């Protein structure tokens, strides 16, 4: 299981444009990928509604996880989106 | 009267059948079940979700920009895999597709609304997607717009969202009217970009009966319901003439016989500069600096102030920029400079220049910052003090300005004592600027913050006009310029009257500039003088208006 911990830097948190880009990128991959607030329940990273409902704000740390071939590449791409200011 | 009134934010006249935008899709019955074929019902739900997603995406592509971002996120909601699983489960349990979609979104909605703030606002986006899918499944018209009719329609709504307006064009819509919104609202920006007339902040717009013929004047903000053919023709003709004249009246402000009257803008910070330039302002006649000081616990630093002043000065190279130093107190209290005691009547309390006299260090920092900004810019910087009552106060302020290195220092005339003794004050200062709003408040003893006193704040009040004349004459005795920077300057008829009295420049909200420029360009200085004499001879505001207008014949043709 590959995993990344990222601090969200965007002023709007993981909402609006960052959330849409994050979910779109996750949805393109064939493997399962989850996102959770540190210490919280993981949700499907391909679900915009679930990601919005997490209510991730600027400065929050999120954990993203995926398993399978290409998991590292996918997580790197998602980490880049989530950590972009 | 069969009319509504709002704020015109996109000029022009629109006429057509009214269509009230509704977002109301009935909630599917909690007991609604499908016929028994769960697989077919799941398929129906999936296809409806995908069709709405594709439609939202397509609207986004057509709209571009920020609307596209919102619509893209909405399309993702309709395609949400978690939602799809939830909906399928509800259908398997017997619910109809519409009910399942409604409930499926419901769970997420609660979490999103619960988060509040920015996220709470996104609940409206979610509701919009849900309602579109439910409407499609129930065979109801989609919430939102009708298809293009034989004639362009007038779109009335409480407010408009990007999804509503993304697909519109001027071939489809004759005008927009909304109950909410302001000059910078989404509707206003979109309407101006499309070149479609629009009126916002118009109560009752969303209650107009569908099919009512609606005539919209996006300049005056007037909305007439079921107007006569004659009314439509009159308003349309006047608007066309007005547009032609406003468009033709460019360049520096002047009467028809070439008497120059610089037309300046009132601004509240660098963010207003663009509007001022768009209105053709020849400079800034009133730069309110309060925005730097309000809502903070410590005063702004000199550096911060220099940057804010340069933000306006640099937009007007070689032009005049009149900065009013801090006008706090009364309706604009400062957290870091509370009044020394309770003030039962703050309008008569420690405000404006009086606050500077108690806290000279705040004034010195502001004047130093202004002097530095003035040196770094090619704009002609002038500074002026608010709330000056006496010659001594004027002298004290001007001395402080000169010591800071500022070359041109004036005072606002907004207290009757200053107007009555204008000759004395003029001896001390480089210029006057009359603030008609406060001058009316103090002359008529009518607090601006108290509702129901509007008639006493009418800038055509005879006593106010007398004091304006006293100030102009006092300035003229000493050869000092005297401008006006209150609401009065933005009224095309009153602007002509003020010029007739001898006012040397007019400063107003940027949106008022084109109409005032046109009104002046159509009348000679002599006509303005006659209008001023007529207004001064009248004994009440309506008579003063009528008497002045009799000498300003071109205004009526412009519906100004």
UniProtKB/TrEMBL annotation, chain A:
Pfam families: PTS-HPr (PF00381). Its main location: cytoplasm. One of its GO terms (biological process) is phosphoenolpyruvate-dependent sugar phosphotransferase system. It is found in: Cytoplasm. Coiled coil: none annotated. It comes from the Bacteria. InterPro entries: HPr, HPr-like, HPr-like_sf, PTS_HPr_His_P_site, PTS_HPr_Ser_P_site. The keyword Cytoplasm applies. GO terms for cellular component: cytoplasm. Residues 1-85 form the HPr domain. Keywords: Cytoplasm, Phosphotransferase system. General (non sugar-specific) component of the phosphoenolpyruvate-dependent sugar phosphotransferase system (sugar PTS). This major carbohydrate active-transport system catalyzes the phosphorylation of incoming sugar substrates concomitantly with their translocation across the cell membrane. The phosphoryl group from phosphoenolpyruvate (PEP) is transferred to the phosphoryl carrier protein HPr by enzyme I. Phospho-HPr then transfers it to the PTS EIIA domain. This is Phosphocarrier protein HPr.
TrEMBL record, chain B:
Phosphoenolpyruvate binds at residues 288, 324, 437-438, 448. One of its GO terms (biological process) is phosphoenolpyruvate-dependent sugar phosphotransferase system. Gene3D superfamilies: Phosphoenolpyruvate-binding domains (3.20.20.60), Phosphohistidine domain (3.50.30.10), PtsI, HPr-binding domain (1.10.274.10). InterPro entries: PEP-util_enz_mobile_dom (IPR008279), PEP-utilizing_PTS_enzyme (IPR050499), PEP_util_AS (IPR018274), PEP_util_C (IPR000121), PEP_util_CS (IPR023151), Phosphohistidine_dom_sf (IPR036637), PTS_EI (IPR024692), PTS_EI-like (IPR006318). Keywords: Cytoplasm, Kinase, Magnesium, Metal-binding, Phosphotransferase system, Sugar transport, Transferase, Transport. Its cofactor is Mg(2+). Residues 251-521 form the PEP-utilising enzyme C-terminal domain. The keyword Transferase applies. One of its GO terms (cellular component) is cytoplasm. It is found in: Cytoplasm. Residues 152-221 form the PEP-utilising enzyme mobile domain. One of its GO terms (molecular function) is kinase activity. It holds the Pfam family PEP-utilisers_N. Its EC number is 2.7.3.9. General (non sugar-specific) component of the phosphoenolpyruvate-dependent sugar phosphotransferase system (sugar PTS). This major carbohydrate active-transport system catalyzes the phosphorylation of incoming sugar substrates concomitantly with their translocation across the cell membrane. Enzyme I transfers the phosphoryl group from phosphoenolpyruvate (PEP) to the phosphoryl carrier protein (HPr). PANTHER family: PHOSPHOENOLPYRUVATE-PROTEIN PHOSPHOTRANSFERASE. Belongs to the PEP-utilizing enzyme family. This is Phosphoenolpyruvate-protein phosphotransferase.
């Amino acid at each position: 299981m590959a995993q990344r911990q990222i601090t969200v830097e965007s002023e709007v948190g993981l909402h609006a444009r960052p959330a849409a880009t994050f979910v779109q990128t996750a949805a393109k991959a064939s493997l399962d990928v989850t996102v959770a607030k540190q210490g919280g329940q993981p949700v499907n990273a391909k679900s915009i509604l679930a990601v919005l409902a997490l209510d991730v704000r600027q400065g929050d740390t999120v954990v993203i996880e995926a398993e399978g071939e290409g998991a590292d590449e996918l997580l790197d791409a998602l980490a880049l989106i989530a950590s972009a200011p | 009267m069969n009319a509504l009134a709002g704020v015109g934010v996109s000029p022009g006249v629109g006429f057509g059948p009214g269509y009230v935008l509704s977002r109301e899709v009935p909630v599917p019955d909690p007991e609604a079940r499908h016929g028994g074929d769960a697989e077919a019902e799941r398929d129906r739900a999936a296809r409806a979700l995908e069709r709405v997603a594709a439609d939202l995406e397509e609207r986004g592509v057509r709209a571009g920009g920020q609307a596209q971002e919102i619509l893209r996120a909405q399309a993702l909601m309709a395609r949400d895999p978690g939602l799809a699983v939830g909906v399928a489960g509800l259908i398997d349990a017997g619910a109809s597709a519409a009910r399942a979609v409604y409930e499926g979104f419901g769970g997420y909605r609660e979490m999103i609304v619960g988060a509040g703030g920015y996220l709470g606002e996104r609940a409206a986006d979610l509701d919009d997607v849900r309602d579109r899918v439910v409407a499609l499944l129930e065979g109801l018209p989609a919430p939102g717009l009708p298809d293009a009719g034989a004639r362009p329609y007038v779109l009335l709504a409480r407010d408009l969202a990007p999804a509503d307006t993304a697909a519109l064009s001027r071939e489809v819509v004759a005008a927009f009217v909304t109950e909410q919104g302001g000059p910078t609202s989404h509707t206003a920006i979109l309407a101006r970009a499309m070149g479609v007339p629009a009126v916002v902040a118009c109560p009752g717009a969303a209650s107009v009966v569908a099919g009512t013929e609606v005539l919209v004047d996006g300049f005056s903000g007037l909305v007439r319901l079921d107007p006569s053919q004659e009314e439509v023709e009159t308003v349309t003709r006047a608007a066309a003439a007005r547009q032609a004249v406003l468009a033709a009246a460019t360049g520096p402000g002047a009467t028809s016989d070439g008497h120059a009257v610089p037309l300046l803008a009132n601004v509240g910070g660098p963010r207003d500069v663009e509007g001022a330039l768009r209105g053709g302002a020849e400079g800034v006649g009133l730069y309110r600096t309060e925005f730097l000081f309000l809502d903070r616990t410590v005063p702004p630093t000199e550096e911060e102030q220099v940057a804010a002043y340069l933000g306006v000065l640099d937009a007007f190279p070689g032009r005049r920029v009149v900065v009013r130093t801090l006008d706090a107190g009364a309706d604009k209290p400062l957290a870091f400079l509370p009044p020394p005691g309770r003030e039962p009547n703050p309008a008569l309390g420690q405000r404006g220049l009086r606050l500077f006299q108690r806290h000279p260090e705040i004034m010195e920092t502001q004047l130093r910052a202004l002097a530095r900004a003035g040196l770094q810019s090619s704009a002609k910087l002038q500074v002026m003090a608010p709330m000056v009552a006496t010659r001594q106060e004027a002298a004290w302020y001007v001395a402080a300005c000169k010591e800071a290195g500022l070359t041109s220092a004036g005072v606002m005339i907004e207290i009757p004592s200053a107007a009555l003794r204008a000759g004395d004050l003029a001896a001390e200062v480089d210029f006057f600027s009359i603030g008609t709003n406060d001058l009316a408040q103090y002359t008529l003893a009518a607090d601006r913050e108290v509702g129901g006193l509007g008639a006493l704040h009418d800038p055509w009040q005879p006593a106010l006009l007398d004091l304006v004349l006293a100030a102009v004459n006092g300035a003229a005795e000493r050869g000092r310029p005297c401008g006006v920077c209150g609401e009065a300057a933005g009224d095309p008829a009153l602007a002509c009257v003020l010029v007739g009295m001898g006012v040397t420049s007019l400063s107003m909200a940027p949106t008022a500039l084109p109409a005032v420029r046109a009104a002046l360009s159509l009348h000679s200085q002599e006509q303005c003088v006659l209008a001023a004499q007529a207004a001064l001879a009248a004994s009440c505001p309506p008579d003063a208006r009528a008497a002045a207008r009799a000498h300003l014949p071109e205004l009526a043709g412009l519906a100004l």
